[in-house]
Amino acid sequence: MANSYYDPADLRKFGKITEWSEELGNKFFDYYGKVFEEGALSAREKSLIALAVSHVVKCPYCIDAYTKDGLQRGITKEEMMEAVHVGAAIESGATLVHGVQMMNKYNKLSM
Amino acid sequence: MDQSILTEIKKAAKKSLKAKENELSDTAKQIEILNGELFADGELPYFKDKIAESGQFPLKPAKLEILQINVGYMCNQVCEHCHVDAGPDRKEIMTRETMEQCLEVIRSTGAHTLDLTGGAPEMNPHFRWFVEEASKAGIKDFIVRSNLTIILANKKYHDLPEFFKKHNVHVVSSMPHYTRGKTDKQRGDGVFDKSIRALQMLNKVGYGMPDSDLRLDLVYNPSGAFLPTDQAALEHDFKKALKEDFDIDFHNLFAITNLPISRFLDYLMASDNYEDYMYALVEAFNPAAVANVMCTNTISVGWDGWLYDCDFNQMLDLKVASKVKHIKDYNEDLLNNRDIVISQHCYGCTAGAGSSCQGTVA
Predict the structure, then answer these.
(1) Which chain A residues are Cβ-neighbours of B178 within 8 angstroms?
(2) What is the C-alpha to C-alpha distance for residues B252 and B258, in angstroms, rounded to an integer?
């Protein structure tokens, strides 16, 4: 066992999850592949969305994968960083919007 | 990657590996790395074994279509990814005598495309004479691979767009990105602005315009340790950006994968990306690309007249496996019976949609 929770080389082994549950693993990878195909959204737009979400879910594997995917697609670093900010803004917004709950509770409990 | 390593590489990149006496300027050292433990330990399959799985070993030529001639390794640029290790300090230049031998072949070949490359081919002192003579041979598609900046490098090159036009040359030029930062990082400071000006000069004489027969295509190489994506999508992005920002027109974009040899191999090793890159190439292996890989329809001629299966094998000094090894003994029938010489760098041409000097192949 590695003495770290994350090993970059593990990303290459992602496909092996099918070995312990073939049907579910294959269904996941089929679905995953389909999601990223060109559709109403371009594959390029989907790559940027994936990069933003990768940061929000704080997945190091996903960040490596979609930074590389973005580079391959010719996406610029400015576009990538803006996407990360979109994720960060939603995440901080999600925290801050709970401030209204705090205010509501405060007001309810206060005379 | 670590900025200090990048700075070191950039500083060192101003000279060729050969001038720096870098161990990778020795082709045997490069081949040793390509045959190294990653493959020898069975972690990744040798290219030979991989194509054998789909019944494609030994790799044989199909019909010869392209005669590619490297007229010398001298170049006005020192690009970080260059598989030729070209630069101003390279003195290997095709002589007029070898060019005469090439012309004899050009006049008799069954190939429909003649493809001149370098270095900067325009820096060969016999370049214009050679183009004039070769253009008389009636080859259907006559390509010159121009790095664009050469057109602005010296007054004597300013008329190249007119010269190309006069001889109906098909111009193919490198352009790693439509933004300044990425282009200059790979090809050197100021290269982007000069390339833009050169493209505008080519457009001005009619090259690359939508209905023009004067063909102008661009070549895209990834500027780093990653593979190119869908060629059509990249072409769309390049066309939109170059038109909107600089009013530039061109015909097609060829997406070419960087092969792990020479200066790009040096970069992969120095930046600790070699293993990941080889994994990426092997994972993206596509048997359909093997069937159309460029060594099956191309002969590459070196500056000194030796024959190779492709420009990459030329840079690894892997000569054709044929009785005929030199342009002076050229015999198309004999050459077409050869087995193509392969090694692990060949994964670069079979990844994804494949890669060749004419872009994707699958």
Answers:
(1) 74
(2) 19
